[in-house]
Structure of NAD(P)/FAD-dependent oxidoreductase:
Amino acid sequence: MTDRPADTDAYHADATDTGTFDVVVIGAGPPGENLAERTQAAGLRTVLVERALVGGECSYWACMPSKALLRPPAALAAARAVPGARAAAHGSLAVDEVLASRNAFASGWQDDGQVSWLASVGVELVRGQGRLTGPRTVVVTTPEGSERRLVARQAVALCTGSRATLPELPGMAEARPWSSREATSAGQVPDRLAVVGGGVVGVEMAAAWRALGARVTLLARGPRLLPRWEPFAGELVAEGLARSGVEVRTGASVSALRRPDEAGPVVLDVSGGNAVIADEVLFATGRRAGTENLGLDAVGLTPGDWLDTDETLRVRGVPGDWLYAVGDVTHRAMLTHQGKYQARIAAAAIAARAGGAPVDDGPWGRHAATADQRAVPQVVFTDPEAASVGSTLEQAEAAGLRVRAVDYDLGSVAGALLYAEGYRGRARIVVDLDREVLVGATFVGSGAGELLHAATVAVAGEVPIARLWHAVPSFPTMSEIWLRLLETYRG
């Protein structure tokens, strides 16, 4: 397992060497942390390189702080929807408490706890910017400006995530826009907030800051919100945002920005509509690969590109098959839980290859990230929530499958009647008619995220409809929607 490979001379030590490891991981977000933990547990000496905070984007500027902002208004809305409870739910959110809770969820933007955890599982941490300089070789520029050379016997894994990208528009620099980072970490509520982008980040942050008291205008370039989802998901989320007081404008493209006074408001010129004036503007319009400073050119790859991987997460086009990539940087499924899934797959594959064991990389094999293509779950934490897994109807048809969509009013099941008065929601399953298995499911409604894992199991497990018929949902719960969908399918 620890033999030095014959295809590189990178193991000749010099004064800058810090030693030779089995696995070198660059990037200590959740994918990198999980991969490092698992390779270390498999007996492969692993070092983790991080230039910023251990825990990455998810811990400090994405999943954790954003959900801390979104949970209080969701809890308040749920109480207001239930007769007998709404009397206790009058008033507004305690903004200072919400922001303090958000800060705690982000650990005060300190990574001491994550660093302690790494030490507890035996993974060594090196602080600094890591870059490839040749086969299995990483040079780290430390915060002090010195360089340390790390050499991998088995594998180097790139887990450096993605970065928010801003469009090139006139006036962008003077406008000083928020990215997703500022949107989840801001310490004060702006009086007026413009949100540009109708995807997940855009709708969630519009919901969060509106609940905290900002007057929010959401500008989406396309005809609907959540364009990659089933159409009804975007429609119901837009209705929910509008009910909360968000001004939702679709078909609205920003052509220029102005902030004439450095301390004054931003003016957004909007094609085909009135200008928008806001105190802050959030652009949630896309991400780019975090690969610009990794030395990819040293191994024949293009800096700044997404990394193309096989099913075991090895980067294609690198001689020797020693380079892996996990998480957002692969552009496979840019979600924390999928990055951690990929880390489990990659770590198992690295360990198998290091030990000379067979690699099971067929569909749904132990060393294949099949779920990235077939069973990716995602929840949008707005009110109503939107939850989906697998393919939409449009995606399934584009893939050449013979499918049928089955819809049902989520508000008509008994559990919904208890959940909230006037509950609004919708559910859809997409059935492969040739195999009679689910290839996709979408639920929109309050609490819909809690319905998702059952659908994920059905899609990933390719459970036959005939067998699902025997999975009896408890009454009266929201899960009764499964019975209603299957009854509708069977006719």
About this structure: Residues 172-285 form a domain with the FAD/NAD(P)-binding domain fold (CATH 3.50.50.60). The mean pLDDT is 94.
